[in-house]
Write a structure and sequence with these properties.
Radius of gyration: 28 Å
Strand content: 15-25%
Mean pLDDT: 95
Bound molecules: histidyl-adenosine monophosphate
Structural class: alpha+beta
Largest sheet: 8 strands, mixed
Helix content: 25-40%
Strand order of the largest sheet: 1-5-6-11-10-9-7-8
Length: 431
Amino acid sequence: MSQLVHRPRGTKDLAGDEARQWEKLEAACYAVFTRFGYEPIRTPVMEPYALFSRSVGEVTDIVQKEMYRFTDRSGDEIALRPEGTAGVVRAYLQNNLSQERPVRKLYYCGPMFRAERPQAGRLRQFHQIGAEVFGSASPYTDAETMAVLAEVLRAAGITRFRFEINNLGSAEDRAGFGKVLQEFFKGKESSLCEVCQTRLGKNVFRVLDCKNPGCRELVATAPLVSDHVSDASKADFAKVQTLLTDLKLDWSHNPHIVRGLDYYTHTVFEVKHSGLGAQDALGAGGRYDGLVQSLGGPSTPAVGFAVGVERLFLAAAAEAAEALQAGHAPAEAPRSGVTVAALGDDALRGAFTLTQELRLSGIVCQMDVDGRSLKAQMRQADRSRSRYAVILGSAELAKGAASVKDLSASDASQAEVPLAELKSFFQKNLS
Ligand code: HAM
């Protein structure tokens, strides 16, 4: 036998129920976005490398250590997108999306790529559902962005999540705070890891989210960014907090959140779930008022978020397991659709045509074309959670009527329905 080919480390296949659950979740999230007035956008998974070095930042873990980057056959430097925001900003500019409306609210879903060490909730190909709003600097838009995020989580069946928010101030505030940080680290360089010692001169903010225990200890005593922002930014941040309380979202101010991507300004947030373990961020986002301009566009305020789809499923599963422990049994999957079971060769042709007719009239319908026994066909009808089974043998064909079994009834009651009336029978009884 030839050797099996395996998928790359840190990637996942989705099949069966799991694939179905993903489709359902995506559809539920798209419905949330539509309710909040967002429109879909799809951008390529590969983009010029420079897009990410100029937006996420040259001196960030994502760009320095985690990007899948290659030179293609025509010599172009390409990267597989590690996140969605930069590509959406590029597409917003390249397609002049600001022309039609001053405020543009966009959502997306798709695979992202980061060469991280795989562990529970951390993959190399993972999926984000995200949203970006362009053209509004209002704190109401920050609050609305978090409100739509909360609805996305609820659509995924997650209820126990909390927001941690912080204020990074404007680009000028950050430049000023950078100097404050430089001053703070002066004379303490030897307590920092080697990487952070180089970060000090290049991008001092990245020292703040270093995972090294020595660096963390020092950073815990460092000045806090939200204390070094302008009064206008403080006022907007206070407004965001009021609005989040009005919306009854569970939030707290975590002054240590700095985010690992360089483009953020003003409000930033992470949404955490206790059921996730070490990778406890379900999603994250914030304002990035300077990014559109720094990628060659006009000055445009913007804010957005992304959630990790794999983590949504982990959190939903953790909540379902807790509910089960508390004695709440999960609801059985509802029955739907029809299985047509054919008895013998003659009936197979009639059943085949009937199945197509039912499908064309919008009824979810399946049949076994391999001539298995009636018992096997009924077992399959049950497994696939069909609501009705239509049994068609030569006697039924001769009579012009089929036996219809309601598989949701406790006695699995059976009725005879004329073939010509089957369509309307199911249209009436399957909602
Ligand atoms: P991020 O914090 O890098 O932000 O990622 C957002 C979410 O993606 C994380 O909270 C997590 O749920 C998921 N995620 C990240 N890396 C992985 C991984 N290796 N495996 C599984 N899940 C992962 C961003 O990407 C920003 N673009 C968010 C944003 C949108 N900000 C403004 N607009």
